[in-house]
Amino acid sequence: MSTSLTKALRILVVLGEGPASLDELATALEVHKTTVLRLLRTLADEHFVHRDDHHRYRLGSRLFELSSRGLDQREVRTVAAPHLHAFNRAHGHTVHLSERDDGEIVYIDKLESLDNVRMASRVGLRGPVHSTAAGKVLLADLPATERNRVLDDVDFPARTPHTITDRDAYLAELARVREQGWAQDREENEASINCIGAPVRGPAGTAVAAVSVSVPTIVAGYDQLMELVPSLLAVTGTISRDLGWRPTREDPPA
């Protein structure tokens, strides 16, 4: 990869964290301002960045266009959409569709709850594998060697007082997830928010995504959320079969 292309991509990564001035970008990239300005002009000409009235640079419209197209090209998102919409209408809670990106999950779709309580999550947001139901589902499905490789880079930070912060305890949790076919996050990632998740399987039977349902405790209690597990497993099973998965007796439930 050329040096200029690398620097241009780093600019986009920095701006992904928020608007920045020319000086801030030069400092972040550790290069001279004239170099950054030249790259910014090229990126602006193609609408990958734009400068606002306060002379700060932001991500441009071209990136959002490409992001939208990229999401539409994800087969699992397209196949899952009608089923997730039906589930959301039936139960009214926030629903996420996630994929794993090494030691993190990435939300590739989100359906808002039908009540007045909104969650801060959004499409494209990343989350930890160790404290989310979706992360547990996706990690539990990995072969042991791959699972351990991912966990070698996980620090197990405490997101709440309920977060699992011990690797052995987390591995025991993943064993339970594999056995029962779904995962829970009982206020482990965010205080006062419970979550359940289940895998979406591809034709080979491996988990290619996870569907999770998140509910603030002020909307519904933990026991009420647990009542949705059969419905969650039913919808992930339907999505999996639409993707080409054909369960056998040896396959875990989905």
UniProtKB/TrEMBL annotation:
Q: Which PROSITE patterns match?
A: HTH_ICLR, ICLR_ED
Pfam families, per the entry: HTH_IclR, IclR_C
Q: Which residues form the HTH iclR-type domain?
A: 2-61
Q: Where are the transmembrane segments?
A: none
Q: Which SMART domains match?
A: HTH_ICLR (SM00346)
Q: Where is the IclR-ED domain?
A: 62-245
Name of protein: IclR family transcriptional regulator
The top of its lineage is: Bacteria, Bacillati, Actinomycetota, Actinomycetes, Pseudonocardiales
